[in-house]
Amino acid sequence: MSTHETDHDHDHDPALQARLRALPGQRMPPADGWARLAAQLPPREAAPAAVEHPGNVVALPRRARPRWWLPAGAALAAGLAVYAVAPWRQAPLQAPAPSMLQLQAAAMTEQYQQAVASLPGARAAEWQPALHELDESAAQIRAALAQDPRAPHLLGQLKRTYTLRLELTRQAAQAAAAGLTT
Description:
There is one protein chain. By secondary structure, the protein is mostly helical. The chain is built from seven helices and two strands; from the N terminus they run αααββαααα. Helix 5 (100-118) packs parallel to helix 7.
């Protein structure tokens, strides 16, 4: 049986109909009803007191001010993030300033080239593969120093390579001048 059918059964109950007609048309709450209800409720936390105005008008407590700075701050942060990563505004990449080690390596290379230029130009062909190998090693060390400008061991390795290259170049020049071959 559904609730709808149950409701219809009450419509035909004459005793229930008579009791419903005997109820008063309007009922007024007791005068102290609100006071009794308030006494049964748990105590409230301190809320701002409402200021009563004459004429039965009660002013409501002021609402908290809207926090306008939250959306403004979020918008500013989003704008800065877009500006920082926007691909259309990136200027062509400029080479970073050379590190102290890179400057020392450049000065060392300059001194090495001057020292090689001061040696006699006659070189025997059998010395060329070893000289070429040392030149390749120096180029690789300079490339590694460009990738890792904070690696002092590379500067030491470059110095050893240039020293070995100069010594081998001197020996080649002396051998060519003396007419000796290996």
